[in-house]
Amino acid sequence: MSETSNLRIAVLGGGPGGYAAAFLAADLGLQVTLIDGERNPGGVCLYRGCIPSKALLHVAKLIDESRHAKNWGVEFGEPKIDIARLRSFKEGVVDKLTGGLGVLSKQRKVQYIQGRGSFENSTTLRVAKTAGGDEVLSFDRIIIATGSRPAVVPSLKLDTPRMMDSTGALDLKDVPESLLVVGGGYIGLELGTVYAALGAKVSVVEMLPGLLPGADRDLVLPLHKRMEKVFESILLNTTVAAAKEEANGIRVTFDGADVKEREKVFDKVLVSVGRKPNSQIAGLEKTQVKVGPRGFISVNAQLQTEDPSIYAIGDVVGEPMLAHKATHEGRTAVEAIAGHKVAFEPNAIPAVVFTDPEIAWCGLTETQAKNENREIKVAKFPWAASGRALTIDRPEGMTKLLIDPHTERVVGVGIVGAGAGELIAEGVLAIEMGSLANDIALTIHPHPTLSETLMGAAEVFFGTSTDIYRPRR
Ligand SMILES: Cc1cc2nc3c(=O)[nH]c(=O)nc-3n(C[C@H](O)[C@H](O)[C@H](O)COP(=O)(O)OP(=O)(O)OC[C@H]3O[C@@H](n4cnc5c(N)ncnc54)[C@H](O)[C@@H]3O)c2cc1C
Questions:
Q1: Ligand 1: which residues within 6 Å by Cβ?
Q2: How far is the CA of 45 from the centre of ligand 1 (A)?
Q3: Is the dihedral of CA 440, 443, 444, 449 positive or negative?
Q4: pLDDT tens across 106-153, in order?
Q5: Active site annotation includes 447
Q6: What is the structure's pLDDT at 358?
Q7: CA–CA separation, 320 vs 99, rounded Å?
Q8: What is the average pLDDT value for the chain, to the nearest integer?
Q9: Against a cut of 0.90, is the pTM above it?
Q10: 339-367 pLDDT per residue, tens
């Protein structure tokens, strides 16, 4: 038995970072306590993030396709929406997954405590139990996995059910006639897509000149075009200066050079302007943990904080605030604690926007390459040349590879189109494996699939694609 096997570990927060860390630690033979406020593990991702939003987006896509089907000679009529049943479908998915995690936790003999943890010192936690009473517990190592919460705009902080954050929007109390989404990031666009499919007139306001500021513009363009049809309006370069509740809605005042209508009343407003790390943990000042200026806990490549007994993972340590990043950090932290030689040094973390079309990218983006003055070649394969894209009537997509011109290594991948979120995994693997463009070009992809567009983009790089014609220079 290794000398680490008797270590007692606490994991504070049961999200995709925390529960993965706790379960792996138990599998490695450590004694594990997992603390979270919910009845079962799951965190934001399962209870009020990734999972409920994707369940609703699945239904939104079905509604959209049923409307679109008349172009293919099939008419379904206007869908009738039973909001209570839709809500219970979504809640059923969440219950199944979180209940499953509860079972997995018991099977691993992880001590799960429902409650709120605070620090007494670097190795001691006080847990205020949901069931009542406090418990003070000591550990050899503590992993902070407390995640993040929606950022709040003080001028939009109205105490009314008409004003929602992402959690309120996912509750799906009703479908408002009009909805203003404040923030053109992925959460706002995904939830706006859901409400628009259910029949709300959705407007989006974004203070920057484009939607999804982190993504390359050529990826955003097809999405923007489609959203212009699905949404009532997209207001760019515009901020919300004020919001006031009135008898029949929230009166919003817009500000910005492009603003045409300065005031408008909306049934409901969804504020999704980013997320804040949950690093204000009671008693953290009694440890040596350092919190940076943006509220993220500072960690090294092993996810160890400035306090040798304390590790931190997931949204609370930094961008990108994504579930799969949190999980991998959780695994790395546990392996480091168990004495393995590990570091969290990914070459590519995929980002997916589950709108319609989807956008996904990994590794270097063109914007980043430009900002960092990095020499790259970009090879694009338009989906209009993909047989599969035409069979599903989605020719607006595009797949691109960013390639180092000297080594011919793939350093970035960007995809816009139906199912881009599934396709990007090949790009991540290619980058992590150090693939050359030729590796992708020479890999036989199944036909007819959208995955062929990755191979096609590699062929475009070499000028050998037979699916598109480029005159010889
Ligand atoms: C609407 C929405 C959609 C999203 N969609 C996606 C997506 O499609 N893909 C994706 O990768 N990411 C998505 N995310 C982001 C994803 O949810 C987060 O990146 C992920 O949940 C972070 O995991 P985590 O383990 O760091 O923490 P979290 O999931 O935030 O979990 C932290 C847990 O710790 C608990 N906690 C906090 N403080 C304490 C304390 N003192 N004591 C005890 N417990 C505490 C919290 O209550 C929470 O349960 C989405 C987020 C939202 C809001």
A1: 12-18, 35-38, 43-45, 49-50, 53, 116-117, 145-148, 166, 187, 278, 281, 314-315, 321-324, 326, 354
A2: 5
A3: negative
A4: 999 999 999 999 999 999 999 999 999 999 999 999 999 999 999 999
A5: yes
A6: 98
A7: 27
A8: 96
A9: yes
A10: 999 999 999 999 999 999 999 999 999 99
Confidence of residue 470 (pLDDT cuts 50, 70, 90): confident
pLDDT tens for each residue of 332-346? 999 999 999 999 999
238-269 per-residue burial string, b: 16 or more CB within 10 A, e: under 16: bbbeebeeeeebbebebebeebeeeebebbbb
Backbone angles phi, psi at 443, to 5 degrees: -85, 125
